[in-house]
Design the sequence.
C-alpha cells in the first residue's frame, strides 16, 4: 500500500511539459521572476514543487553549451540536483527516473 501512495505522490508532484514551457518563455523572454545565480550569472526561474528551470551556461565545455553558443535556447528543469527535463528551442524532453538524462 505504501508503494501506491508513493507513486501517487510522485505523479501529483510531476511537472508537466506545459508548466516547463511557460517557465521557459519567462526565462528567455525576460519575464518577472527571473533570477540569477550570483557566481555564474546563469538565469533561472522557480517551478512548482521546489524545482527550478536553469538556462544552459554557454561558458561550459559540453555539447549543450556549444548549442547555446550557436544561439539555441536550452534550459534544464532540476530538483535537488536531479535533472527532470531538458528544453531545446521550445521542445521539452521529460526524463523518467530510470534512464540517463542526457545532461552530459
Sequence:
Amino acid at each position: 500500500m505504501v508503494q501506491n501512495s508513493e507513486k501517487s505522490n510522485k505523479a501529483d508532484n510531476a511537472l508537466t511539459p506545459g508548466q516547463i514551457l511557460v517557465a521557459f518563455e519567462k526565462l528567455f523572454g525576460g519575464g518577472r521572476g527571473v533570477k540569477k545565480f550570483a557566481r555564474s550569472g546563469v538565469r533561472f526561474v522557480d517551478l512548482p514543487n521546489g524545482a527550478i528551470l536553469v538556462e544552459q551556461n554557454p561558458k561550459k565545455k559540453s555539447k549543450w553549451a556549444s548549442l547555446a553558443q550557436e544561439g539555441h535556447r536550452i534550459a534544464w528543469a532540476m530538483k535537488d540536483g536531479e535533472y527532470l527535463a531538458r528544453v531545446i528551442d521550445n521542445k521539452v524532453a521529460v526524463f523518467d527516473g530510470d534512464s540517463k538524462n542526457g545532461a552530459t
